[in-house]
Specification:
This protein has about 120 residues and is mainly α. It has one domain (about 1-115). About 85% of the residues lie in helices and about 0% in strands. The chain has four helices and no strands. The two termini are about 15 Å apart. Keywords: Membrane, Transmembrane, Transmembrane helix.
Length: about 120
């Protein structure tokens, strides 16, 4: 199931990339190019977050650990980084928002896939 989700996210991102390229080449309306750009950004970051998520889950399974320990380590590193470097707080917040967004998009894809 995880490979299916990665494939769907990749195809969606590639489609928006192609739409963005074509809309710039044929000088289409600015709205189409803007929609394509935001689609690439949204689904591209979701694809990267999904790859990160699957990598952590794979490592936990490979070493026979519980993945919540890996997520706790990421949270602790984030808290420590925010404490030591105030300028990184926004980036860390965006990272966790992207991970939450990934959950929403992947959940929607799974919901739509299971209804067929």
């Amino acid at each position: 199931m995880t490979t299916v989700i990665l494939n769907k996210l990749f195809i969606i991102t590639l489609s928006f990339s192609f739409l963005w390229l074509v809309s710039d080449q044929i000088s289409a309306s600015g709205q189409l190019s803007l929609i394509a750009f935001f689609g690439v950004v949204l689904f591209g970051t979701t694809l990267l977050a999904e790859i990160l998520f699957q990598s952590i889950e794979y490592l936990a399974e490979r070493f026979s650990h519980d993945s919540k320990h890996y997520w706790a380590l990421i949270v602790m590193l984030s808290i420590t980084t925010m404490y030591l470097r105030d300028d990184m707080t926004g980036y860390i917040g965006v990272f966790f928002l992207v991970v939450i967004l990934r959950g929403l998009i992947v959940g929607t894809i799974q919901l739509l896939s299971s209804s067929r």
